[in-house]
Amino acid sequence: MAYSGVCIEARLAYKRSENSGQQSFGFRESAPSALRAVDTAPNEAARQLSMGIIPNFRVPSQSVVHRVFFEDRPYAEADENLAMWESSDGTRLSDQRRVRIKAKRIGDSVHALILPL
């Protein structure tokens, strides 16, 4: 039996448009970084279910991934709804999919496994 799931790595990062080299020259004030799903890897079963996290999406503050990162927890799990994931331009994951997220702190990032319920 194949399990569907998405692996992500979340860490502090800028949105793509903020990664230009001009910010390092001090021409404008740097925007704050946010906790983002910088690497995402859905397996084939997850792709067939159209389940995934868009790379560089902000991690919602309500997510267990956010809590593990900012509360310096080593590990936590929670049931969540993917619809709460949102980009900085307001784009949301359209799927109202309920998932189980297992998140583990590893150095300066959180690695998480997202499984459908």
* Continuous helix count: 2
Distance between the termini: 15 Å
Sequence stretches where pLDDT stays below 50 over 5 or more residues: none
SS-derived structural category: mainly beta
Task: Order the strands across the largest sheet as they lie in space.
Answer: 2-1-5-4-3
How much β-strand is present in the residues?
Answer: 35-45%
Report the principal-axis shape: globular
Order of helices and strands: EEHHEEE
Question: What's the gyration radius in Å?
Answer: 15 Å
When the domains are counted, the total is 1
Explained architecture:
The chain is mainly beta. The chain has one domain. The protein has two helices and five strands, in the order ββααβββ. It has helices spanning 44-48, 64-70, and strands spanning 6-13, 34-42, 75-81, 98-106, 109-116. Strands 2-1-5-4-3 form a five-stranded antiparallel beta sheet. The two termini are 15 Å apart. The relative contact order is 0.25.
Please supply descriptive tags for the structure shown above.
mainly beta, 117 residues, 5-stranded antiparallel sheet, 2 helices, single chain
Explain the layout of strands and helices.
Elements: E1 6-13, E2 34-42, H1 44-48, H2 64-70, E3 75-81, E4 98-106, E5 109-116
Antiparallel strand pairs: 1-2, 1-5, 3-4, 4-5
Short description:
10% of the residues lie in helices and 35% in strands. It is built from two helices and five strands; from the N terminus they run ββααβββ.
